[in-house]
């Protein structure tokens, strides 16, 4: 993988570009994809964002989202566009399998592949150009850097500002995680100068759920939370019946894991959700406990030091048991 700087000259000539991101894109994946989309369109490229799967409803206000092609729903159309692409930009993931069923098509494509990401241990040989920087708050911050470093700062418009703010805000936990550097705040200041209305974005993302979601959170906190004090760990599990009872959709469970770390003394929060295809884990930690390593070694996952995800094909009861068993090995690290 060559440095991203060597990719900048390609921006000057209009190209057919596909932008994609990890499955079930979150605010950073969708924000960085759409931010780059508006930037490349301003430079007269022919651009399509292809999402590997659907996404949470709370992202549906985003500018350009009605143009995003959902690969699961419109695979023929997506594959045709992918087949014609000269450049594929891969954002907010580090290895093709994070795009689920799109992975083989990305691997087989002859297009120039560009990686822009901030997760640990990227699969660099799969990409022609790229930047992987785990020190960055978000992929949105990296798209902002690309715009500035490639010399096109004047192209930042209100759409780009709204998209990039979404990802940097959601990936930093509203600017509270240690990844929130001075350059993050400088970037936000620059986006404000381009007309960013940050209050509207917080409203769209946090104040737009249906009643059932709030009742579900209350139910989960009251009935599905286990605090394992000897390990300074909080665990939550959500069954298929819980999801059905409250009519829970993609995105409604986002943020639930953060409640776990609000308990005094808790350093490790883990939540497992019984999804149709697998049991999906979310891990969060405070301080030095490395949940990326924990997820990699025990639950086929990965991510960042303080935020990671994983999966299990066992039943929900069994995967909770598995978790409690492996936790014993981490007792010292969690003191
Ligand atoms: P979340 O818990 O919000 O789904 O994910 C937390 C972080 O871990 C995100 O940066 C996400 O991209 C990453 N992540 C989630 N699941 C996986 C996984 O299965 N594998 C890897 N490598 N990263 C994951
Ligand atoms: Mn991210």
Please give a structural write-up.
With 335 residues, the chain is of the alpha/beta class. It folds into two domains: 2-206, inorganic pyrophosphatase (n-terminal core) (Alpha-Beta Complex), CATH 3.90.1640.10; 211-334, Diaminopimelate Epimerase, Chain A, domain 1, CATH 3.10.310. Helices cover 36% and strands 19% of the residues. The chain has twelve helices and 13 strands. The strands form two sheets. It has a seven-stranded parallel β-sheet with strand order 1-7-6-5-2-3-4, with helices on both faces. Helix 1 (27-42) links the parallel strand 2 (16-21) and strand 3. The longest helix is centred in the first third of the chain and has 16 residues, at 27-42. The structure holds guanosine-5'-monophosphate (5GP) and manganese (II) ion (MN). Guanosine-5'-monophosphate binds next to strand 12 and strand 13.
Q: Quick summary of this structure?
A:
The protein contains twelve helices and 13 strands. The chain has helices at 27-42, 75-84, 103-108, 139-149, 158-171, 182-193, 198-206, 211-223, 240-245, 256-260, 291-298, 316-327; strands spanning 2-3, 16-21, 46-51, 69-70, 87-91, 112-117, 129-132, 225-228, 233-238, 268-274, 279-285, 302-303, 307-312.
């Amino acid at each position: 993988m060559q440095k991203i700087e060597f990719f900048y000259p390609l921006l000057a000539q209009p190209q057919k570009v596909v932008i994609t991101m990890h499955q079930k894109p979150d605010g950073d994946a969708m924000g960085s994809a759409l931010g780059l989309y508006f930037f490349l369109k301003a430079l007269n490229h022919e651009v399509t964002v292809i999402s590997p799967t659907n996404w949470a409803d709370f992202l549906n206000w985003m500018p350009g989202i009605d143009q995003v092609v959902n690969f699961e729903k419109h695979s023929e159309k997506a594959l045709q566009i992918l087949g014609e692409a000269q450049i594929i930009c891969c954002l907010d993931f580090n290895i093709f399998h994070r795009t689920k069923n799109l992975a083989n098509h990305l691997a087989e494509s002859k297009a120039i592949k560009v990686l822009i990401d901030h997760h640990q241990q990227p699969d660099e040989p799969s990409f022609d150009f790229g930047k992987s920087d785990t020190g960055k708050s978000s992929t949105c911050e990296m798209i902002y850097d690309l715009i500035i470093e490639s010399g096109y700062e004047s192209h930042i418009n209100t759409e780009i500002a709204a998209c990039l703010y979404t990802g940097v805000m959601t990936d930093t936990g509203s600017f509270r995680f240690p990844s929130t550097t001075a350059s993050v705040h400088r970037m936000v200041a620059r986006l404000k100068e381009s007309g960013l209305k940050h209050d509207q974005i917080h409203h769209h993302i946090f104040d737009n759920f249906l009643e059932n979601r709030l009742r579900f959170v209350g139910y989960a906190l009251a009935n599905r939370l286990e605090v394992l004090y000897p390990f300074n760990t909080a665990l939550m599990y959500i069954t298929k019946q819980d999801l059905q009872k409250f009519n829970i959709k993609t995105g409604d469970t986002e943020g639930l894991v953060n409640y776990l770390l609000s308990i005094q003394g808790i350093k490790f929060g883990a939540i497992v959700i019984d999804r149709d295809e697998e049991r999906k884990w979310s891990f969060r930690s405070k301080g030095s406990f490395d949940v990326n390593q924990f997820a990699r070694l025990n639950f086929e996952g990965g991510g960042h030091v303080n935020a990671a995800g994983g999966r299990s094909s066992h039943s929900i009861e069994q995967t909770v048991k598995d978790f409690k068993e492996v936790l014993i090995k981490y007792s010292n690290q969690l003191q």
